[in-house]
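hey m, so remember when u said the tokens were messed up on ur end? i reran from scratch. heres the input so u can diff it against urs
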Amino acid sequence: MYEIIYKDIEENKEYEKIVDRVLKQCFQEENMQNSKLSISITLTTAQNIQDVNKQYRNIDKVTDVLSFPMFEKDELALKIKEQDFLHEDVLGDIVICISKVEEQAKEYEHSFERELSYMIVHGFYHLMGYDHEEEEEKALMRAKEEKVLNDLKVNRG
């Protein structure tokens, strides 16, 4: 279902527990628990995510999370509806900057677990084809994110 890659940071069992719990809930929420779709999650430094952001988005700055989906939203929706999961396939890649997670947890006055969980859910829904460029799409994406976090009881504050 997923692979965790540590790039220039120490392996951490707590991060792994959070990733496991959140992704299982995301897959369940989207009725994909029996799929053979997998995600790679890279946990990394500010410099590494800035390099990736510059390379793939031409934005030379640190960000908290980047997502690289492998499917178009409609293609994925059809695959899920038909439960067409005969073969292993990659849903996409998520890159998360751990120092930004720590910084934002303090800034928003909630736990590291809450912030990392949000980054994972946010990245997951980008892989699912959701976006937040337009208000209507943003509202739909936020509702899905909040449902997963609420079901996990990972609340703000």
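this time it looks ok to me. Residues 134 and 140 are 10 Å apart (CA to CA). if urs says something different then somethings off w ur setup not the seq
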